[in-house]
């Protein structure tokens, strides 16, 4: 297990963040919150995918007015995302939101912040104070802005991180004066390296739980890599108590990626199959890439963490698939299926998908009935002989004649 940094703990609805609690997955709806049906539908899908807490935007009064209906139907705690208008925060608290997110860059007035803190204290609701690269830059005071620009031009990264920490510190003075400590902090940037450095600095200054994320990460193809690079690095250092992987796409994928990241780091137990597959090479004799994609989709209905391997041949396959509960080793037009170390079936390429699925379902059922345990017997196969020269082909030799 990765040792985690110790922080205070806050409760969002029934979900604990920080302290000894497991890392919590968050996402955000992309619907208009005042469209209650669409918002509730998306929240339910996110919760079903494994999202622990969902954030909703409340830019208008009609959004906070819709919150009670959303909250009544939500299976998970809801965070109201507030920018510019502190009244939305007060209305969201009144509506029963489980947490409020404030941005020090656009709600600065001490009296207004005091009122939000008082309302949250009365209801026992935590507040996330989130800065990002764009919100800490001075925009009104021209003299201050000019000085900032000079400093940023000299050493952008160090100066930006200093600004983020300084902004959080200034804002936290208000919270400390109110003796209010139910706070989660975030310090986001669009740059993965900056995110790593910023959270590292914030984690040294504050003992509050941290919400990790990369802001405006872009489309999934690049956004998920930026997010995973930053969030994964921080989690590996023990920093981070709740995460949101974000990019411009259906948020359901954010949750799937977040779960995979936490499982990969051993910070969450798997509840669905783990798929390992060879990357393919010149030894391949079937359309493995399509097979892997089909297997991935088909296995998604199984709720047991069976480890499944789809390998293109037996040259490297045995070693790579050795930890699998169910594995297929494909050769020319045929494949061998192993279940917990036993060779079960030889199937044609056309039968491979269904056969692998059937064997995985059968094993998952036996695990559910308590007849076997996962990892009881892994696939262990003797290494294939080297290719036998011209015309020779080790993978095909490994597949028995019918
Ligand atoms: S398992 Fe076989 S086909 Fe797949 S990458 Fe390894 S050597 Fe190539």
Question: Care to describe what's here?
Answer:
- By secondary structure, the chain is of the alpha/beta class.
- It is built from 13 helices and 15 strands.
- The protein has an 8-stranded parallel sheet. A 5-stranded mixed sheet has the order 11-12-13-14-15.
- Bound molecules: iron/sulfur cluster (SF4).
- Iron/sulfur cluster binds next to loops.
How would the blueprint of this fold be written?
Blueprint: E1 9-12, E2 15-18, E3 24-28, H1 36-49, E4 53-57, H2 61-73, E5 78-81, H3 86-95, E6 99-102, H4 110-123, E7 127-132, H5 142-154, H6 156-177, E8 183-188, H7 192-205, E9 211-213, H8 220-236, E10 242-244, H9 252-264, E11 274-277, H10 288-299, E12 307-311, H11 317-320, E13 326-330, E14 334-339, E15 342-348, H12 352-368, H13 394-397
Parallel strand pairs: 3-4, 3-10, 4-5, 5-6, 6-7, 7-8, 9-10, 11-12, 12-13
Antiparallel strand pairs: 1-2, 13-14, 14-15
Helix pairs in contact: 1-2, 2-3, 3-4, 5-6, 6-7, 7-8, 10-12
The structure holds iron/sulfur cluster.
Key traits:
disordered C terminus; binds iron/sulfur cluster; elongated; single chain; 402 residues; alpha/beta; 5-stranded mixed β-sheet; 8-stranded parallel β-sheet; 13 helices
